[in-house]
Amino acid sequence: MKINFTKKQFKTLLDLAYLGEWTANSIRPDDERFADYDELFQYICLHAKDMGYDDLVPYDRELNAYYPSKEYEEQLHPIIDDNDDYVFWEKLSGNLAKRDLDQEGGTFDTLDDRFLRLLEIEERYEKEFEENGLANLVIKEDN
To answer: Which in 29, 70, 83, 118 has the greatest CB count within 10 A?
Structure first.
């Protein structure tokens, strides 16, 4: 199979490959990395020179691999940071809402009723965090 890309499309593919590989592997130790993602990223980088983007992912002879330049990482990390922030607030609100719902106890006539109550609690947290961030979040000490 052969796929032809414009220069702009290739740059977008390179961006997506970097973002995907970074998301999948950046938190993993070497022995737990997704090798297929590494390999595909390296394969795409192999063609960067042909498309005029070898400055974004230069080849390191000592390590025998392509690595994103500092400038290229700086271009893409705001996307990662935005996603991380979004996920943080969503997970925090969702996890606190699940905890509160479990602490409320009680029974619900249907799963829909339980889900609607969970959404109510979650929305309360989302509004709080949107207005005040973490300013009002405290850890209670057990005495």
So the answer is: 118
| Structural domain spans, the chain | 7-68, 77-132
pLDDT in tens, 66-92: 999 999 999 999 999 999 999 999 999
Q: For residues 124 and 100, what is the distance between their CA atoms, to the nearest angstrom? A: 11
Separation of first and last alpha carbons in the chain = 67
**What's at 26, amino acid-wise?**
S
5-23 burial code (b ≥16 CB/10 A, e <16): eeeeebbeebeebbeebbe
> How far is CA 98 from each of CA 24, 105, 127, rounded to the nearest angstrom?
26, 11, 16
pLDDT in tens, 22-70: 999 999 999 999 999 999 999 999 999 999 999 999 999 999 999 999 9
106: region left, alpha or beta (phi > 0 left; psi from -120 to 50 alpha): left
- What is the rounded CA–CA span in Å between residue 135 and residue 130? 11
pTM (2 d.p.): 0.81
- Alpha carbon 50 to its chain's center: 29
